[in-house]
Amino acid sequence: MRKYGILTGKILGILALGFTLSFSRDKKKRIQLHQKCDRLWYTIDRKKLCEVLKRLRLNNFLIFEKQKDGSEKARLTLSGKTHALRYQFNNLNIKIPRHWDKKWRIVLFDIPEEKRKIRDALRKKLKKLGFLEFQKSVFIFPYSCADEINFIINFFDIYDNVYYLEAPISPDSQFRKRFKLN
Is 171 exposed, middle or buried (0-12, 13-18, 19+ CB in 10 A)? Predict the structure, then answer.
């Protein structure tokens, strides 16, 4: 994605949000996606937008479809969706609430040796998101992150190998200290 730049990533992100929105059944999630899309949309210079859309079309990431009313609709190709997902994956982060609900989020995985690269990439991503490695295949985090973990699981296509739990841990004083919780 670096090859195409931040603006291209934003545009692919906007188009992918439309795609993601179509799969969301949760009304609150749809509203959040709309707001995120609006924030991205208003940060884009219109002249640069046209240049990037042209480049995306030339690289076969985007196609334009004529509508009955004469307007054009931009739609991501499979290749464009792949790049958009990669952009979303690279920019994934977890919102930290003001107050901790005293539950620990535990990610457990057992990924076979033939998927070693995916297993290593998963470990790297969890560490980047702020998870604490409890054991080689057990990571903990204090805040809700089910959506983010599901996104990662689907991105890597490892849903049969990864488990997400929310539970209290006792004793947890060393974990509280690590995450600076009271």
Answer: exposed
* Cβ atoms 30, 18 nearer than 8 A: no
Burial class (CB in 10 A: 0-12, 13-18, 19+), 19: middle
Domain limits, CATH 1.10.10, in the chain: 2-90
- Domain 2-90, classified CATH 1.10.287, yes or no: no
Fold (topology level) of 104-178: Alpha-Beta Plaits (3.30.70)
Tens of pLDDT along the chain (182 residues)?
Answer: 444 577 777 777 777 766 555 556 677 776 777 777 777 777 777 788 788 888 888 989 888 888 888 877 778 888 888 888 888 888 889 999 999 999 999 999 999 999 999 999 999 999 999 999 999 999 999 999 998 999 999 899 999 999 999 999 999 999 999 999 97
- Residues 163 and 113: their CA atoms lie apart, in Å, by 18
Region of 5 (left: φ > 0; alpha: ψ -120 to 50; beta: rest) is left
Helix (H) or strand (E) holding 82: helix 78-90
Cα–Cα distance measured from residue 21 to residue 147, given in angstroms and rounded to the nearest whole number: 14
For the chain, give every residue range classified as CATH 3.30.70.240.
104-178
